[in-house]
Write a structure and sequence with these properties.
Layout (H helix, E strand, L loop, with lengths): L2 E5 L3 E5 L5 H10 L12 H10 L9 H4 L2 H10 L12 H10 L12 H10 L12 H11 L4
Antiparallel strand pairs: 1-2
Helix pairs in contact: 1-2, 2-4, 4-5, 5-6, 6-7
Length: about 150
């Protein structure tokens, strides 16, 4: 049991799992870290918690982490949250490097387009790939003025 204080007609202390869906939505929006105390939150509630604080993803179960919508919400809010996703969808990987090029660090076998996108976002992302292609090296040099 996890007790929370909410405003109904007066302030009341209640078990988080007895809140109505609307009350839970408003509560989790303000306190996303408390999602871990909710028994079987809906995908919408979990998505909203991740949107409010993408690092919450690390505390969700594998079934929530595998959900495409939750992955996309997390990647768009903080690209580095992809570190908590075991098998991200391709569009989630693109969203992650678009938001933060350093997310490339957590992507297994990125394709050339993903690498170029990450370097465009943050040139230092080039250091997270083994042997940069000519295109990646030229882009890095153009953006930084430095040779790789």
């Amino acid at each position: 049991m996890f007790l929370v204080t909410i405003l109904r007609e007066t302030y009341e202390t209640v078990d988080i799992n007895t809140l109505t869906p609307v009350e839970l939505l408003f509560y989790i929006r303000e306190h996303p870290e408390d999602i871990m105390w909710v028994d079987h939150p809906s995908i919408d509630i979990a998505s909203m918690a991740v949107h409010s604080n993408p690092k919450i993803l690390q505390f969700l179960t594998a079934s929530y982490k595998a959900n495409h919508n939750i992955q996309l919400v997390a990647a768009r809010a903080d690209g580095l949250s992809i570190a908590y996703i075991t098998d991200p969808y391709d569009d989630v990987e693109r969203a992650a490097v678009k938001q933060n090029g350093m997310a490339l660090r957590y992507i297994k076998n990125p394709d050339e387009n993903l690498i170029i996108s990450a370097i465009n976002n943050n040139p230092d992302a080039i250091f997270y790939i083994g042997k940069p292609s000519n295109a990646a090296s030229k882009l890095y040099k153009r953006l930084t003025g430095k040779k790789i």
